[in-house]
Write a structure and sequence with these properties.
Blueprint (H helix, E strand, L loop, with lengths): L1 E6 L8 H12 L3 E6 L5 H11 L4 E6 L1 H11 L5 E6 L5 H5 L6 H14 L2 E9 L2 E3 L2 E5 H10 L5 H20 L7 E4 L6 E4 L1 E5 L5 E3 L2 E3 L11 E6 L4 H12 L3 H5 L3 E7 L1 E14 L2 E21 L2
Parallel strand pairs: 1-2, 1-3, 3-4
Antiparallel strand pairs: 5-6, 5-16, 7-10, 7-15, 8-9, 8-15, 10-13, 11-12, 13-14, 15-16
Length: 304
């Protein structure tokens, strides 16, 4: 196969040695071209170019943000995307069942390529941008924004940094005195008092260490989206929801402060003023409205 190895050398767990080992392993059976990203959005353009040139597979060694950019470049084409974990959390790679070590994951990837294990999967889209696993609105995105202000620490203390940023955001950097937006799923009543929302294309929502945070266990790459609207940011409520997600998420789904819709094709969010949002862990700023849609079989994906 013709393979583009797309590397984000700035990602938290990418090393020069690891890149060389992975490139050598892939080149044993495939025609490999190496490309490195240098700025935001670069992975999308490199992936688009690979598709135009007829590359069979784009292998991304980087974090979830780099994977998201590559997916946006490949959606709707026949060129497949393959993930290798190179970030701090690697939600999508781990959701696919890959180990969290990039060199070990390369062995699984080579096996999948040898079997021809490639199939088309669905993606979510928000305001014209595809997402692989989720988009977070409000409080969630404000946490990501705080983490990105300390991006240099992610390589050394990613999970403690997220936990610290969550408490810091709740206490100092997010207005939780009032709802921030409304959520409308076609065919259902408007939820008009939402403080924090997540639209998921897959479960889990993320990982804390080795533990998945389960929010919508029935949501997969073959179903529609799940929309989770949280109607309170009271500390006991948020703590209870977080602890529930570390298990099976049953308390979360029956909590009266949570509105959950599974397998939906579209969602509209209207803000009561600007609110922050993030896509696949990448903070994208503030907006006053969002339009979500589900796109079945949008992306060819290498399945380990």
């Amino acid at each position: 196969m013709r393979v583009l190895l797309l590397v984000n050398s700035s990602a938290s767990s990418v090393t020069a040695r690891g890149r060389v080992v992975i490139q050598k392993a892939l080149s044993a059976d495939h025609e490999i071209t190496l490309a490195e990203t240098s700025r935001r959005g670069h992975a999308t353009r490199l992936a688009q170019g690979a598709a135009v040139e007829g590359i069979d597979v784009v292998v991304v060694l980087g974090g979830d943000g780099t994977l998201n950019e590559a997916a946006n470049g490949l959606a709707g084409t026949t060129t497949a995307l393959a993930a290798l974990p190179g970030g701090s959390t690697n939600v999508f790679a781990r959701t696919l069942g890959l180990p969290d070590d990039a060199i070990e994951a390369t062995g699984d990837l080579l096996g999948a390529l040898a079997r021809g294990s490639i199939r088309r999967v669905g993606l979510g889209m928000v305001n014209g941008r595809y997402f692989l696993f989720h988009a977070g609105l409000g409080f969630d995105a404000a946490i990501v924004a705080r983490v990105e202000k300390r991006a240099g620490l992610k390589r050394y203390a990613s999970h403690p940094l997220f936990l610290f940023s969550a408490f810091e955001t709740w206490f100092r950097h997010y207005d939780h005195s009032r709802p921030r937006f409304s959520v409308q799923v076609p065919g259902h009543a408007i939820v008009d008092d939402v403080y924090f929302g997540v639209c998921l294309n897959t479960n889990p929502y993320t990982y804390f260490g080795s533990r998945p945070l389960n929010v919508a266990p029935g949501t997969t790459l073959d179903t529609g989206l799940a929309m989770v609207s949280i109607r309170s940011l009271a500390l006991p409520t948020i703590t209870g929801i977080g602890l529930s997600a570390l298990g099976r998420g049953s308390y979360l789904r029956r909590n009266r402060a949570v509105d959950l819709h599974d397998d939906v094709e579209a969602v509209r969010v209207e803000g009561y003023g600007p609110f922050p949002y993030q896509v696949d862990g990448d903070y994208l700023g503030e907006v006053t409205s969002l339009e979500f849609s589900h796109h079945p079989e949008a992306l060819a994906l290498v399945m380990p």
